[in-house]
Amino acid sequence: MDLFNQSLDSKNLLPYDGIVNYYGPILEQARADYYLQKLLETIAWKNDKAIIFGKEIITKRKVAWHADKPFEYSYSNHSKFALPWTTELLELKQLVENFSSETFNSCLLNLYHDGSEGMAWHSDGETDLKKGGAIGSLSFGAERKFSFKHKTSNEKVEIFLPHGSLMVMKGSTQSHWLHRLPPTKKVTESRVNLTFRTIDQ
Ligand SMILES: O=C(O)CCC(=O)C(=O)O
Ligand SMILES: [Fe+2]
């Protein structure tokens, strides 16, 4: 796999009002398998809490949050303190930084056990994220559809994210577009997604 050519070979998926670069699989199958296994074994996966119609619920999806420092991060109306990097997360952060030519100081991890678990429409413009900062999204395991919807035109853009693939959202994407991981009956395997982010210190 040629790192130099791969990193140049990404196009913007969005027609306007933002930049989403899709790089395709950036890890060979065996390495992607290795990282998926390691992440499942070494991350302290926890069920997340969310507020839905004013009611607190426990999501089936599991999450984890790692960073350079024990940042307090608010997410889905809750705050939590970041854990230190694991060996594999640091390696993957470096890899995503090399491909995207961006830097990150934190990572939010999501574990979806099967297609019944997903994530509702949202954007990641929380106040503690660096304004206009890039978000590097690395996916492992089951291939899932990922959708974008423009906040005013409602235009939709959809992409499938396979094992070991990298997508980078940047520029004004979070201001103008929502994204979600739709649930699906077709997927029975689990998926792990890592979103590398920059917390404003
Ligand atoms: O699982 C994914 O691909 C996306 C997760 C996401 O949008 C988020 O954590 O903010
Ligand atoms: Fe998101």
From the structure above, extract its key features:
4 helices, 4-stranded antiparallel sheet, alpha+beta, binds 2-oxoglutaric acid, Jelly Rolls, 201 residues, binds fe (ii) ion
| Main beta sheet strand tally, sense and closure | 8 strands, antiparallel
Alpha carbon gap, first and last residue: 36 Å
Strand count? 14
Radius of gyration: 16 Å
Could you give the order of the helices and strands? Answer: HEEHEEEEHEEEEEEHEE
* Helix coverage percent: 10-25%
CATH H-level homologous superfamily name:
Alpha-ketoglutarate-dependent dioxygenase AlkB-like
Which cofactor or ligand species appear?
2-oxoglutaric acid, fe (ii) ion
Counted up, domains total 1
Do you know the CATH topology? Jelly Rolls
CATH class (first level) name = Mainly Beta
Strand content: 35-45%
Q: Under the CATH scheme, which architecture would be assigned?
A: Sandwich
Low-confidence stretches: none
Helix run count: 4
Oligomer: single chain
Structural account:
The protein has four helices and 14 strands. It has helices at residues 3-8, 29-42, 87-100, 173-176, and strands spanning 11-12, 19-25, 46-52, 55-67, 72-75, 78-81, 106-112, 119-122, 135-141, 144-150, 156-161, 165-170, 177-181, 191-197. The model has no long low-confidence stretch (mean pLDDT 91). By secondary structure, the chain is α+β, with helices and mostly antiparallel strands. The chain binds 2-oxoglutaric acid (AKG) and fe (ii) ion (FE2). The site of 2-oxoglutaric acid (AKG) has 10 residues, from β7, β13 and β14. One of its GO terms (molecular function) is dioxygenase activity. Pfam families: 2OG-FeII_Oxy_2. Keywords: Dioxygenase, Oxidoreductase. This is Alpha-ketoglutarate-dependent dioxygenase AlkB.
